[in-house]
Design brief:
Number of helices: 3
Shape: elongated
Order of helices and strands: EEHHH
Bound molecules: zinc ion
Strand order of the largest sheet: 1-2
Largest sheet: 2 strands, antiparallel
Number of strands: 2
Helix content: 40-55%
Distance between the termini: 14 Å
Radius of gyration: 16 Å
């Protein structure tokens, strides 16, 4: 197991309950302490699309919601390019989430 270090205070993050993964830019993600550090840095973050925690329940719901919209879009009579954009957006949010899990969450105990 690799150790996950907070980007704010550089200390070791112990468990998933204390982990907040935040998106930075288009592909960047960074881990922070939930209780001590996230609040302190949240205001200064400039996520392009999502600046909230990406390992949160709200984010999980929004991925499910995006998936539903994508499925619905494929049954609608709309231009193919729109369907493609919707599909790529879904792949994007899912891969950011998977990247967060792969990089940080799987290394921590719950
Ligand atoms: Zn910290």
């Amino acid at each position: 197991m690799k150790k996950v270090h907070c980007q704010h205070c550089a200390k070791h993050i112990e468990d998933r309950g204390d982990l907040v993964v935040v998106q930075k830019g288009i592909w960047g993600i960074e881990p922070y302490h939930n209780t001590k550090c996230y609040g302190a840095v949240a205001k200064g973050l400039s996520g392009l699309l999502v600046s909230g925690p990406i390992n949160s329940k709200v984010n999980r719901l929004s991925i499910i919601f995006t998936a539903i919209i994508t499925i619905v879009a494929f049954f609608l009579n709309i231009p193919g390019v729109v369907k493609l954009v919707v599909l790529f957006y879904l792949l994007y949010v899912v891969s950011i989430r998977a990247w967060s899990w792969f990089n940080y969450e799987r290394h921590l105990s719950t």
